[in-house]
Protein: Transcription elongation factor
Amino acid sequence: MATAQSILALRKQLIAATGESQNTEDAVIILKRLKEEVVATDELLRETKIGVTVNKLRNNTAKEVADLAKELVRKWKADVGKTGTKKTSTAAASTSNSTGASPSPGPSPIPAAKSPEPGRGPLPAITTASSAKPAASPAPESQSPAPSSSSAPNGPLRRQSSGGPPRTHKTDGVEFGKGKDATGDKTREKCCELIYDALAQDSGAPSDLILSRARALENHVWEENPPPAGSATYRNKMRSFYLNLKAANNPGLREGIVSGEISIVQLYNMDPKDMASEERKAENRKLVAENLFKAQAAAPQQAETDAFQCGKCKQRRCMYYQMQTRSADEPMTTFVTCLSCNNRWKFS
Structure:
């Protein structure tokens, strides 16, 4: 099983192999090594951030790299699920063992009935029943601690993927508007609070780190758009950052900001389309291709001819098409393009 250090080394090699000068063969070899050597756990993925790097390769231009990345992401998700199931079953087994180990006190023995004194009849039967009642009463008392151990409140789950509520500044106990870093402005503090909640919702990073990144982003936007002229731009920028960072399908952007892979200045200069997730970028590229195809399909049919002479270069290699641009009783308009100099003209 690979260690965290070896995974970090493979991650650096993978980033270099899939950079601008992409080396598909090296990337495939590294992905195959990760598939064979790494058994993913939640802590390991959070520490090495290898999951973020591999997840970005699912839309790689090289089909073999993209397929391996998708297969690797599915495998690691299954590994993390198995790890969580084992932890849950282990906790349940320890709880049941601790409950079963505590012996419940049995009913207290009934004292032997004394022999009746001379001159008296036998003791009434109600004496035995009344002595048996206290023996049965300790049973509920011995069972009462069991429910309290199972219903004891656990610590709040910090990661939304583990089934708990999303992590926010309230769950972390972070207060805005107080302390030495407070801005003293309610609007700015509210923006810092929203950015913190967006960054922290599925992060395992310390709250101090997330708070520093949220305040750094807000402060940079404020300095680039000082009031009163930049107030509208400041609000629009902060709204755009919040909506893109809190998107459930965009964990890579959040992870990059918290880890420092994406600097505050780099994030500020990004367009909304650059901040979108890899899935969203792929959808946008598909829509652009479809729209381009439809626009080309709607264009009029053109034909090549030598019947026209270009007035600019005097060549006769031309493309033309005709359209009815005026009323129906008027002749069609002919549009001509010279294939030599790209000169265009029309006539009726």
Remarks:
- The radius of gyration is 37 Å.
- The beta strands are 303-305, 318-323, 333-338, 344-347.
- The domain at 160-282 is CATH 1.10.472 (Cyclin A; domain 1).
